[in-house]
Amino acid sequence: xxxxxxxxxxxxxxxxxxxxxxxKPLIEDNVNIKGKPWFHINFLARSCISKNxxxxxxxxxxxxxxxxxPFSRLPVVEACIILDESSSQYRSSCAxxxxxxxxxxxxxxxxxxxxxxxxxxxxxEELLGMRFISCRDLASNSEVEEEKRDLASSNGEVEEEKxxx
Length: 165
Fold this sequence. Notes:
It comes from Panicum virgatum. By secondary structure, this protein is α+β, with helices and mostly antiparallel strands.
């Protein structure tokens, strides 16, 4: 629940007079990027004015402590937005979140930082420990075909040349 409180503190600071109180967390997913835990969270919060309950999406990550205390990570809230009632405007995953968890995300990648389309290639590189490069990235089609012919001939396969009569 501390993720929710961190996110709402950020939201309320930017919306004086339109503050919300936490009701309950709904779902979260997380990933560690370069030693920093990042969280995507959906939660419910109640308007302090109208008492209406709204669903929120928040993205929070934690920076290492600057004061030397090992368990005092600093929260950084990249996004905390109200999700409108129509869930068709949202998607249930990003490049990092597992789709079966149904963490609702804004469709627009500009509304959050981690897990946007640009992160898919980075994730492959991070998981494999190398940049993923396909054969087509390295060579043209003719070079690939030439390599196949060389491999076939070195394995004793003879390719008959067609001659026109």
